[in-house]
Amino acid sequence: MTVLLLFMTFVLAIFLGFELINKVPSQLHTPLMSGSNAISGITIVGAILATQVGGTFGQVLALLAIIAATVNVVGGYLVTDRMLGMFRAGKKGE
Fold this sequence. Notes:
The chain is mainly alpha-helical. The chain has helices spanning 2-23, 26-50, 55-92.
């Protein structure tokens, strides 16, 4: 039962994430990505805690969640750094 609940939560998170990102206008994507780093950090902590539950299948799902959330955090920081770098470059040229 616990494994089924973990799997349903995982599938729901994938579906909701995909739908939410597709609805965001491109002008708002970068600021929202940098803001979502905190949420992804919480996801990483929750996935680490989920490795304790559900046997091997639950651990595999938790590992996938850890990998996906880590990619999101790293990508968010890289995009935010690049965005802030564009503003720094504009200041130097004046």
